[in-house]
Design goal:
This is Death domain-containing ATP nucleosidase. This protein is an alpha/beta fold. It contains 19 helices and 15 strands.
Length: 533
């Protein structure tokens, strides 16, 4: 095993992981018999504890990949190469499999009302009215196990919920739980460190080893987005935070080797869907279906990039991601990754999907979808007293075919986005910034190297491009790659903030915006009229 490479990959993964996945991973370690990790918030340190307990680096990697993928964490293809293709959580760690399975079942309930009803039922019937809102979902599942509500091979207490929401869940789990523990690597609750030769501790040479949730709650002045059903919901106190996740059980990963995709599949792909951040990728992957004749979406690591191949609406597509970390956001990484994917596939169209910031809060509202007919490159600028000027004055035009397809939304498209089960509205009142329907605008976007969260700087951008509706970071690079390969490109992103110094207060709008942009593109690509593009 290449320990140095694994350390590097785990460092990168730990930097990207959110609090929800840390909570789930900590729960899985509890199921593996590892104690005393309640306060640990670093995935890297948690992995270190697992590796010390097992004494087997490959097993620890296999365990980690299984947990993260089960709950939609993406960008793991390279780390998966070091995992064992034969790893089986049910036989190796049956308690962890139970805890993860029940957590997944409860998280998959949507809309939020159904999930809340299920938790209320469990709490009132089995836990004497335990306040499930006082803990996170993984912590609640741990309470269920500790109180004997669920046991290895026995989730009959949830039978009525299973029959109502997911009939196949019980049978699937029971089949797995029949596996014997022969040759199992299960660490029992009573096991001590003396019984297992400890693995060498992987040094954590990063500046910090903790990953915590963003601090600060949205202020009363910032309206909150409609809750997106179908995602995961971490319940803490009276606050519900939506975190949408891709169900990776529909994905096949080429572990340790690259799966050969037939030339027919490669030639049939006309669309490249480009994302930058993890939330943007999740919004797309949640809607990606297996290709015709396949049971699973294909996940590959080729040419140094993670690829996802499946069907988006009526079309086979390849999905790419340019920013696994914050430091990879921007035009240059986006151009580099897009070019690498274009070397493998020969799509006719590139669609960048994700989140942007609104330039004019009076015209463009939080959650609105922006279809770019042009991208103004503000990477090359001249800074003058009190203003900035674009040195490239001509904005790049989006592809004519793509603009024609996406620029004039039919009324039912807006309604579909607003009323889809993925955008189930739970708030009783709505205003201009928290509307029941998502509005769609078509116009120029600026592409800038800066993550803008300053009203004065945004004003300078607005003076440089007064016609711009929104701004983002990757479009200029994607347009350059499209120009190099002589294909059409367009940027379709939804407004996640207003770049006015309140980014933390707007943070709940980001996952909603990811979903809105992904859903808008899906609705068009699912139209029969696009089949012959």
């Amino acid at each position: 095993m290449d320990a140095a490479a694994i350390i590097s990959l785990l460092n990168s993964t730990s930097d990207r992981v959110d609090q929800f996945h840390v909570e789930v991973y900590r729960l899985s370690l509890y199921g593996a018999g590892i104690r005393g990790m309640e306060e640990e918030t670093s995935l890297f340190n948690l992995f270190n504890s697992l590796n010390t307990s097992t004494g087997d680096l490959q097993l620890s990697v296999s365990f980690t990949v299984h947990v993260l993928k089960k709950f939609g964490f993406t960008g793991l293809a390279e780390l998966t190469r070091y995992a064992s293709p034969d790893f089986n959580m049910a036989s190796s760690y049956p308690k962890a499999d139970l805890l993860l399975t029940v957590t997944s079942f409860l998280y998959d309930l949507h809309p939020v009302r159904e999930r809340s009803n299920a938790l209320t039922f469990i709490s009132s019937v089995y836990l004497n009215g335990y306040n499930y809102r006082s803990v996170t979902m993984p912590q609640f599942v741990k309470v269920m196990f500790d109180k004997g509500v669920i046991m290895i091979g026995d989730v009959s207490a949830l039978d009525s919920l299973i029959k109502q929401y997911r009939p196949s869940f019980f049978n699937e789990y029971m089949e797995r739980s029949k596996l014997t523990n022969t040759n199992s690597t299960f660490v029992s609750d009573d096991a001590t460190q003396d019984n297992t030769a400890p693995a060498p501790t992987i040094p954590d040479d990063r500046a910090t080893g903790t990953v915590a949730a963003e601090k600060g709650q949205p202020s009363a002045q910032v309206n909150q987005p409609p809750t997106t059903g179908g995602g995961n919901c971490t319940v803490s106190g009276s606050t519900q935070t939506s975190t949408n996740s891709f169900n990776s059980t529909n994905t096949v990963t080429a572990a340790g080797k690259e799966e050969k995709v037939s030339d027919d599949v490669t030639k049939g792909i006309k669309f490249l869907l480009m994302t930058a951040t993890d939330p943007e990728l999740k919004g797309v992957l949640e809607r990606l279906k297996p290709l015709d004749g396949r049971d699973e979406v294909i996940e590959q690591f080729k040419n140094g990039v993670d690829l996802y191949i499946g069907k988006y609406g009526k079309h086979p597509v390849v999905v790419g991601q340019s920013a696994h970390t914050k430091g990879q956001q921007g035009s240059l990484p986006a151009e580099k990754v897009t070019n690498k994917i274009m070397e493998i596939f020969k799509p006719k169209y590139i669609i960048a999907i994700g989140v942007c910031f609104g330039m004019d809060g009076k015209e463009v509202n939080l959650g609105d979808v922006i279809v770019s007919d042009r991208i103004a490159d503000l990477y090359n600028i001249r800074v003058e007293p009190g203003c900035i000027k674009a040195r490239i004055t001509d904005a790049d035009k989006a592809g004519d075919t793509l603009v024609s397809l996406f620029r004039n939304p039919r009324n039912d498209i807006v309604s579909v986005i607003g009323k889809s089960r993925r955008f189930n509205m739970v708030k009783p009142s709505f205003d201009k910034e928290n509307a029941k329907e998502v509005k769609v605008h078509c116009g120029p976007m600026v592409s800038t190297p800066a993550l803008v969260d300053d009203a004065e700087f945004k004003e300078k951008l607005s003076k440089a491009r007064p016609d711009a509706l929104a701004g983002e970071m990757e479009g200029a690079g994607i347009f350059l790659a499209a120009k190099d390969h002589k294909v059409e490109a367009i940027v379709i992103k939804a407004v996640g903030d207003l770049a006015d110094g309140k980014k933390i207060e707007y943070k709940d709008w980001k996952p909603f915006a990811c979903q809105a942009a992904a859903e808008y593109v899906l609705h068009h690509l699912d139209d029969d009229r696009t089949i012959h593009m």
